[in-house]
Every structure is written in structure tokens, then in C-alpha cells.
């Protein structure tokens, strides 16, 4: 029986525990978290420590078992124990270089002291197992006679290692009541179990006890780190979702560059940009996540394939960016959602615009506001006049003519055109007030778009559009529609007049301020167009019209003017000046300067210095 016990405790259990630690090491490495580097190194080094036990016994008689024993225990004290301690610390804090140094120095001192005492006190070996042709030798325990007292000192050293690196840190961790990370608590329990088993095994020479504890600890430690990895991944996903939502909302709300918005949708995994927006808002008390989750559960498989993106907006609202829905399908989809969410009082705003993403998003918000104005639990679909083809082209022609008259400020003709337009609309809609209001709601949007296209500052325009849209909702009689449209046009005329009296459009002013600040850096036409919130081609035309020169000419002139100040100071070389004003090549700078000023930079400097 003793032979079997020795085989199990000295051969099979170290190999089994080492194999388990090695498996945990490969599993942990696949997670790819830098946070686990100390734990991974601990697993690998402790695997080596365990596997070397049967090798130590099988190498033969003294001194070979002694050399392997010394290596194993120095590895345990100087490497494994500090790594386990640092892995525990890494859960709740960043591990400083000072703490790393202290841990390895302490472990090395204890490990070195153990090796010295063991080496000086051990002078022979004995046969631990005799299996016929195979004999396994182990060291005699260090002498307990003066002057070394090796047995007591090596035992004391290993007890100190167990206490300092395993037991005390684990107990301190478990005593922290504010610690909520179950993964860290589980890790601490695993280290505490091994530390206590190692302490008792060393004191009573029960090696099999801490080999068994090592196997159990490996499972606990790996489970703790697996839970920690999953938590890190969940946190990263939540952070990525939050950043994505904020980016989408920010670009949509700011009427951002359309190309940048499409690139963002492509970046977050969408092959095509969305075409429609559906925005839902719950006015009853409910958890944001529950409301959104319940809504998504009501969407069938075919509809889900057309939902490109779900993004949170506020605590009680979220948006759906949709793809290939027809207008009828989109209306049916929104209405079915409202019916399925009867337990909540839900307002739904929908935009069927196919022009720009920013417009579609903004119009879905307008539709949502209308739904709330009407008392909620309703779907409002924003459908501008140009999308209502069943009314023919005569209304669209009149509408375009009306917008043209507005921008030409032909007030006398505007009044007549308004009356003709309302009469035609009344006839086409067969005196249906709802249909007439549905058509008229597109007028402010189209005037706003035309204003923005003509480089008029959008702040006042958008405010006017919102006010007039709300005013339209309050109209109760057909006779009031003419008055509403006349007031709306009057508001827009005043804004256009004020804008035309400004010496410079705000977009161009922003671009010039940007050039003054960043002229030392590379600035492209696309960069400037983005600052102005315009397309590159539109910006090129607007800048030329406003400033009398192209943007590139303006930028070059500004840089040349800036270089003149530098040329007055002889401490700057021509190459330095070229770099300071945004030219990356001094020869090109000289060529541009000569072409602009009919003199080279060097001659210009000489003339200035002489004068």
C-alpha cells in the first residue's frame, strides 16, 4: 500500500496537476488579454515546477535529485509565488514597477536562502521507490545538526513563502467588503486554498496534499480569470455600443458631412447606408433596456433583416435605421409595432425621405414631436409633397414656382401664388383637411433645404421650420391654411433678407478662421468643405462667389503673407520658413513666392533688411 501511495503522491499527482495547469495556461492565452500576463506566466512556471518532481526522482542517486530540487524550489519561491501575488493585485489595481521589483526581490531572497540551506545540509539520497528496473531517488532532508539546522530553516523558508505570497494577500482581499468583483474573490480563494495546503504539506511533509490542492486551485483560478475575461469583453462591448451611438447621434444631429456619416455606418459593419429612420419614445415609466428589448422581440425575421442599426438616444427613446422598406411596408411596420406595444404609451415618428441621412433623421424627429403633440400612442409619418406622386405634378410645379418667388423676394406674386396653390391643393385633396396638412408639412422642409443649399445659416432656418410645423398641427379649418402658409413664407422671407444683408456667410467665416489657426498644417479642399458643412463641389462654388478667388488661391496667399513676417527675421532659414507656413518643400515655396510677388524670398529678405 505504501508503494501505491508513493506512486500516486510523488509521480501521478504532480503530472496530473501539471497537465491541468498547462491546459489552463493554453486556455488563458487564447483569451488574449494583457491583463492576464502575470497569471499566464504563473501557470507556465508552476507547470514546470510540478512536472520536474517526477524528473527529480527519476534522474538517479545523489547529487542529481539535489540539483533539480534546488532549481524547483528556487523557481517556486523566486518566480511562481511573486507571479501569483501580482496576478491577484492586477484584478483591482495597476501593478507598479516598484511592487513588481519588491515581489521578485523578496522571492529571490527566500528562494536563495532555501537553496543554500538545502545544499549545505544534504549530502546523500535514498531510494524512495523500487519498481524493479526503475528506481526513484529522493534527497535526505537537510541535516538538523549545527551549524546549519537545514531542516528547520528550509521548512521555515517555505512557510514564509506560503504566508507572504499566498495566504496574507488572499485574506486581505477577502476582507475587503467593498470588493464586488466575484472573479477576484474566487481567485483569492484559490490562492488561499493552495497557500494553506502548501503550508501544511511543508510542515508535515505531506507533499501529496499540496499537489492535490494545486489541481483544485488551478480550476478555481482559471474559472476566476474566465469570469474576469467575460466581464472585460462585456464592458468593452458596452463601451463600443455607447461610442457608436454617440458618434451616430452626433453626426446626425449636427447635420454632419454626408460622406463621413456613410463612412461611419460602413465602419460599424453596414454595407449599405440606411434609407429611413423610425424613432420610438415611451411616455410610461419603464426600464429603457426592457422597452427596447421588448420592441426588438416583436420584430419578425424578415423585418429584422432590413433593420441596419439600433441606436439609443435618450433614457426613454431609441432609433431604428432601416434599409429596403417600401413606403407602405415601412408604414405597416411602424403601425404593427405600435399595436404590439399596447402596454406602453408609445409615440413613433417615421421619415420616408430618400435624400440625405441627416434630413431623414431630423424629419423623423419632427414626426415624433408631432406624435407627442397629438397625445402619443400614434404613428406619424413624415411624407413631403414631392413624395406624394398620386396628386400629380401640378402641385409640385406650383410649389417649385413658389419657392423660386420666395428667393427672388417677389412679394406681390407670392400672395397670388399662395392662393392658387391652396385652391389646387383643396381640389386635389377633395376638401380633406388631413391630406392637405400632410402635403403642406413638406413646404417648410423644402424651403429650409433650399436655404441651406444657398449657404444661409441653418440655425434660424431650422428654428423657423420647427415653429411653423407645430403651428400647422394646430390648424383646425381649411380656411386657416392660407393664412398659415402666408405667415410661414413671411418668416422665411425675413430670415433670407437678414442673411443676405450679412457681409459674409458664417460657413465661409468659419473656414477662414480655421485657415488662420491651422495654415501651418496640410489643408485640403475637402477639409475646408467639411468645416463649412458643404460638399466639396458646392463649397468650391460658394467660396469663389463670396471671396472672388478659389479656396486654394486664398490659402496660398495667406501662407505667402505669413511668410513675409518670418522673412524679416534673419535667424530663420528659407527652408524653416517654408515649413512654418505650410509648405513641405522649400523649392516649391520659392517658386510660389516668386510667382505671387515677382521676387524670390531671398531677394525679398535682402530688400527688407536693407531698408
Automatic annotation (TrEMBL):
Query: Quick check: keyword Cell membrane in the entry?
Result: no
Gene3D superfamilies, from UniProt? Answer: Homeodomain-like
Q: MF terms per GO, please?
A: DNA-binding transcription factor activity; sequence-specific DNA binding
**PANTHER family linked to this entry:** ARAC-FAMILY TRANSCRIPTIONAL REGULATOR, REGULATORY PROTEIN POCR
Q: Which PROSITE patterns match?
A: HTH_ARAC_FAMILY_1, HTH_ARAC_FAMILY_2
- Location of the HTH araC/xylS-type domain: 509-607
Instruction: State the Pfam families in the record.
Output: HTH_18 (PF12833)
Q: What keywords are assigned to this protein?
A: DNA-binding, Membrane, Transcription, Transcription regulation, Transmembrane, Transmembrane helix
The protein depicted here goes by the name Two-component response regulator
Transmembrane parts of this sequence: 6-27, 39-59, 71-91, 103-121, 155-174, 186-203
